[in-house]
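[stage:ingest] chain + small molecule (pyridoxal-5'-phosphate)
[stage:ingest] validated
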Amino acid sequence: MTTPDAPALPLRPELADEVPYGAPQLDVPVRLNVNENPYPPSEAVVATIAEHVAQAARGLNRYPDRDFDALRDDLASYLAVESGARLDRSQVWAANGSNEVMLHLLQAFGGPGRTAVSFAPTYSMYPEYARDTHTRWVTGRRAEDFTIDTAAAVALIEAERPSVVLLASPNNPTGTALDTRTVEAVLEAATRVPAVVVVDEAYAEFRREGTPSALALLDRYPLLAVTRTMSKAFAAAGLRLGYLAASSELVDALRVVRLPYHLSAVTQATARAALAHRGSLLAQVADLRAGRDELVAWLRAQRVDGRPLRVADTDANFALFGTFDDRHAVWQGLLDRGVLVRETGPAGWLRVSVGTPAENQAFKDALTDVIGEK
Ligand SMILES: *Cc1c(COP(=O)(O)O)cnc(C)c1O
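[stage:predict] done
[stage:export] tokens:
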């Protein structure tokens, strides 16, 4: 039914040409496009989650624990085991994915007349948080190898005087982890402004031996927030649970902007059950890291148009590889063979997530085929 004189939607003008964010969700045999952990939870974990959810269901007439204290305790103990961080529940925050955690950060520390800074190529959701909170968005460039030049980063922060700096480490879509000296230099510069520094560690559990976590810097830098998620290594992307560690003062600021009861009783129960089974859910991380290193070595041995493929060094569960004169044709060629990767990042590059050994093999076979055709 059409209404001939329907009024125009009074949409914010800056949203007029915007489209919803998201990779294509296509039903193909091998999905290596959104960096999920390819291993579903075991039946034992499923049974525990079901029990906890049933328990939560018995109280669904009531609002959930607004401050999710038990879940924050569980997250703090997980970080103690994973990174040796000693945190009180008042230093932990959580929301529906780390995407929502970062939106809370921009709601509290960005806003009209304020600036957020990051270094591209990086996670494509960051400019959306800025847009949605009316925060000015400024990016510096990463170096040719996708690391961040420390002096240039400090100079940009001094020139732009942001209230928020976003650093992904390991970075998406490049896989690049930052060294501690770069993060410290950014934190020193940010402290002088002052700006909150968000280190987005969505892929932290996949980092290579010797790559540090920014959690180790929390004691020294009260403006630091380290975000994590259960979507990637934890094999729980469908749960929607992201979290952060920071000073309790910073967390208190996030409590002001969150919607009341933003974490449902079902989410809290599921997340707690998953954390109780962390050994099982994280069991495949070592295999995925080994699969990643093997995939990177294989890709680097391939040649396209007479030159070796380039692969960015990666501490995550994916690899950025290229470059192709026509990356869309390669993406489409892989899809035609039942393998979905992500067409993202700088021109000419593609990103592939690490899957099961069978999925990695299917990707290699398809790519060999596609490259051989050229
Ligand atoms: C996947 C990803 C996230 C996690 O998002 P969730 O909302 O927790 O699922 C955060 N940051 C980066 C850079 C990512 O790639």
